[in-house]
Every structure is written in C-alpha cells, then in structure tokens.
C-alpha cells in the first residue's frame, strides 16, 4: 500500500494512504522508520479492514521542511488532526516505536478515541533511545556535518542494529533511503535532535486512565527498547494484555513477520474487552 494522498496541517504536508474495506484500522510507524515498514501488513489486513497508513511529518514521503518541528508533541497533535480529517469512528490503531507515544498522546492529551490500541515495541516509558540515538541527540550539529558517505554508513549500521535476525540488503536499502541526500540527511539528525523524554514524562501519569483496551506486543530480543518496558507498560495500563514474540528484535516486522501478522490478525478480529 502506498501513501499517495496528502493532508495539509499547520504548514506540514502529511502523506497518507488507504486501502481495503471494512472497519477502520490505522497503522503508525516510529523512528527512523516510515509507513513502508507497515506496508506489507497493511496489504494483508486490507482483506478485512479499511487500513490507513501515514508518514509522520519529517518522515517518509511527508514534508521535511527544516523550519517545521517534528517532536513527539507535534506528532501527537498531527495524528489527532489526521484522524479528524479522516472522520473515523473509533478505529483500531496499531503503533510501533515512536508511534506508541504519538498514538497515546493523541488519545490521552488531544481527545482522539480508539476502539482498541495495539502497541508493538513502543516508546512510551522512560528511558528510551539506543546508545547511538542518545549520542546523536547530544551532538546533532556535529553529526549533521558528516560527509555523505560516512553518514550513510552510520545510518545503515544504526538501522541494521534494530534487527535480531539480520536484514536483507533490499530491506536495509528501503529503510535507509529516506535519510540520504541533503534533505534526508538533515531530516535524520533533526528528528533525533528534537527527541525529548519530557514528552513521555508528560504521558506516563495519564496511562492509568487509558479508556480503551490496550494490547502490547514485544520482541523478546529487542535491544533498542528492552522487553522489561513491555512488563512495565502492562502494569501501567490497567487491563492491558501482553504477548511476547521470541527471536524478534526491535524490527519485529522483519524479524518475525508471520508471528506478528498472526498476532495482529488475532487481535484485530477479536471483539475488544472493556478495560
């Protein structure tokens, strides 16, 4: 599924796409990813659902204007606005990585409402960010001056480290491509520089009042956001459930695609229980 539609919001150009028929289901990516990571799952789920994909501002096919903020606060507001634009009636939402904080902020701070939420290896609780991520965040202006070839090598190594099983060359190329070239390189360091744990610090006290069912899915070998966060998140959200997927790292979509697809279909086709 491609993101060929556009939504203008506060000067941001947000790319999105839709496919299939049935109840609405929205897929949210994280960082440094884009909707391309979810695209095969969107195609599969579109047999039973109207599936929505989108690229966060500053990511994928969305605008990368250097003057536009791309922090988690902005992304949560953007998602709430996009849901209003789609006029969806309580969709199911699946979120990965940053998308977890984005979808939770949209609901708990900006009034979005979901039928159910599935959180897959998400950023939601402090601390978060790999050692490389934290190093870049503290020295973004320095990294931004790297020669293009060195930058590409660093990004490729960083992205590859999110997989437990190892990535095929074609998959690695797809994930790295949006961050190459002058615009992509600047956008890569800008989104890391604006990462701030205060956005999840604000969110954490609100988790206990989550008004919809939440299911948590986690790869047991995730080194970017270790599995202890899954157990902490389950404890923080009353009534939430947890499934662990073995032999999967942070890039669970590529490490364990069949297991994840089975888990998502089971979750999406089960009537949500009241939290």
TrEMBL record:
Cited Gene3D superfamilies: alpha/beta hydrolase
Domain AB hydrolase-1 as annotated: residue spans: 23-257
InterPro entries assigned: AB_hydrolase_1, AB_hydrolase_fold, AB_hydrolase_sf
Domain of life where this protein originates: Bacteria
Annotated GO MF terms: catalytic activity
Protein's recorded name: Pimeloyl-ACP methyl ester carboxylesterase
Organism annotation: Nocardiopsis flavescens
């Amino acid at each position: 599924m491609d993101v060929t539609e556009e939504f203008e919001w506060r000067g941001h150009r947000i790319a999105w796409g839709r496919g299939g028929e049935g109840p609405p289901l929205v897929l949210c990516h994280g960082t440094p990813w884009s909707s391309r990571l979810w695209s095969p799952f969107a195609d599969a789920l579109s047999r039973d659902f109207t599936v929505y994909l989108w690229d966060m501002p500053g990511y994928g096919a969305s605008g990368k204007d250097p003057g536009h903020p791309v922090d988690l606060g902005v992304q949560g507001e953007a998602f709430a606005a996009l849901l209003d634009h789609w006029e969806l009636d309580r969709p199911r939402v699946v979120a990965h990585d940053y998308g977890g904080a984005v979808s939770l902020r949209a609901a708990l701070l900006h009034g979005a409402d979901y039928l159910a939420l599935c959180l897959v290896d998400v950023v939601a609780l402090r601390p978060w960010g790999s050692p490389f991520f934290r190093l870049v965040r503290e020295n973004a202006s320095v990294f931004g001056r790297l020669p293009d070839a060195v930058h590409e090598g660093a990004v490729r190594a960083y992205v590859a480290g999110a997989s437990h099983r190892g990535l095929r060359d074609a998959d690695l190329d797809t994930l790295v491509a949006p961050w190459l070239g002058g615009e992509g390189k600047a956008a890569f360091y800008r989104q890391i520089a604006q990462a701030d744990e205060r956005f999840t610090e604000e969110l954490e006290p609100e988790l206990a009042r989550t008004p919809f069912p939440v299911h948590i899915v986690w790869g047991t070998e995730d080194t970017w956001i270790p599995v202890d966060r899954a157990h902490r998140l389950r404890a923080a959200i009353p009534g939430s459930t947890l499934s662990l997927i073995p032999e999967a790292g942070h890039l669970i979509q590529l490490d364990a695609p069949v297991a994840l697809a089975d888990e998502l279909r089971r979750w999406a086709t089960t009537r949500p229980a009241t939290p």
